[in-house]
Design brief:
The protein has 276 residues and is mainly alpha-helical. The protein has three domains: 75 residues; 94 residues, Glycoprotein, Type 4 Pilin (2-Layer Sandwich), CATH 3.30.700.10; 37 residues, no CATH class. Helix content is 46%, strand content 8%. It is built from six helices and six strands. Strand 1 and strand 2 form a beta hairpin. Helix 2 runs antiparallel to helix 3, helix 3 crosses helix 4 and helix 3 crosses helix 6. It is elongated and about 95 Å long.
C-alpha cells in the first residue's frame, strides 16, 4: 500500500511575536516595544513563512521612526526650555546684581594689570599705584563713583594684595564694603537670592504688560493739532487733514500721530493750462 506524504503546515512563532509587538508598539509611547518588535521580526525573516515577519519589520520600523521623532522633539523642546530658563535666570541675576557684576569685572581687570606690572618691575618694587596702571579711568572707579583701594596683604605670597570698594555709602569700614577676596561669598549670596530676583523680574514684566495693554486707544478720526496754549479737552476733528489721526489714550492724553497740523493752502490755477 503506497504511503501518502501530507505536507505539514509550518509556523513561525517568532514572526508572529514580532508582528504583535510591533503593532502594540505603535500605540505605546517611547517606541521601545516597536523597536523590540522590529528586532524580532528581522530575526524571523530567516525562516518561513515570512509574511508576519515582513509585516512586523514594516510596522516596527514605522513605530520606531514615529516615536523616535516624537521623543527627539520632546527632548529638544525640553533642552530649549531649560536653556531659556537658564538665560532668563542669568539675565535676572545680572539685572538684580549689576553693581556686583561691574565690581567683579573691574577688580579682575585691575588685578590682571597689577600682576603684569609687578612682573615687569619685579617683586622688590612693591605694589604699583593704581593711577599708573594701563587701564581705563572708568575701571578704577566702582559703580558709585568711588576709587578702588589697593591694600597689601602681608604673609600671602599667592595673592599679596586685595582690592576694596567702599560700597554704596562710600564709607570705609562699613558693612557694605566689598573686597576682591570676598567676591566668591558675595556671588554665593547673590545666587541664593536668585529665586527672589526671578520673581521680581517677572513682576516687573507683568506690570509693564498691564500698563501697555491697559492704556486703550481709540481712533477719533481726522484731526488737527491743538494750537499753542492751554489744552482743550474737546476732540478736534477736521476733514481738511484726513491723514492726521488723533489718538485719545485711556488716561485722557491726546496725541496727533501723523499728518500735517495745518491745512495746505490751495494752489492757484496754472495760467498756462488750457481751459476747454
Amino acid at each position: 500500500m503506497p504511503v501518502v506524504m501530507m505536507p505539514v503546515p509550518q509556523h513561525n512563532g517568532l514572526a508572529v511575536a514580532g508582528f504583535l509587538l510591533a503593532v502594540v508598539g505603535l500605540f505605546v509611547p517611547t517606541g521601545v516595544l516597536a523597536l523590540l518588535g522590529l528586532i524580532l521580526s528581522m530575526a524571523a525573516l530567516g525562516r518561513p513563512p515570512r509574511l508576519f515577519a515582513i509585516l512586523g519589520v514594516l510596522i516596527g520600523l514605522i513605530g520606531v521612526l514615529v516615536w523616535g521623532a516624537l521623543m527627539l522633539g520632546a527632548v529638544l523642546a525640553l533642552a530649549f526650555s531649560l536653556a531659556g530658563l537658564a538665560v532668563l535666570a542669568m539675565f535676572a541675576l545680572v539685572t538684580a546684581e549689576t553693581p556686583l557684576v561691574t565690581i567683579t569685572a573691574d577688580m579682575y581687570n585691575i588685578a590682571d594689570a597689577i600682576v603684569g606690572e609687578s612682573d615687569r618691575r619685579g617683586t622688590e618694587g612693591g605694589l604699583p599705584d593704581l593711577a599708573g596702571l594701563s587701564i581705563d579711568a572708568a575701571t578704577r572707579l566702582d559703580p558709585w563713583g568711588n576709587a578702588y583701594v589697593l591694600e597689601h596683604r602681608a604673609g600671602n605670597e599667592r595673592l599679596p594684595f586685595d582690592l576694596l570698594s567702599w560700597g554704596p555709602d562710600g564709607v570705609s569700614g562699613s558693612e557694605d564694603d566689598i573686597r576682591m577676596t570676598d567676591l566668591e561669598a558675595r556671588w554665593e549670596q547673590a545666587l541664593s537670592r536668585l529665586p527672589a530676583s526671578l520673581k521680581a523680574f517677572g513682576d516687573r514684566a507683568e506690570a509693564r504688560d498691564r500698563h501697555r495693554w491697559g492704556r486703550t486707544t481709540r481712533r477719533v478720526g481726522a484731526a488737527i493739532a491743538a494750537p499753542s496754549g492751554p489744552r482743550d479737552s474737546t476732540p478736534r476733528t477736521s476733514a481738511e487733514s484726513p491723514d492726521a489721526v488723533l489718538i485719545v489714550e485711556g488716561d485722557g492724553e491726546e496725541r496727533v500721530l501723523s499728518g500735517s497740523p495745518e491745512r495746505e493752502a490751495p494752489r492757484p490755477p496754472d495760467p498756462r493750462r488750457r481751459v476747454e
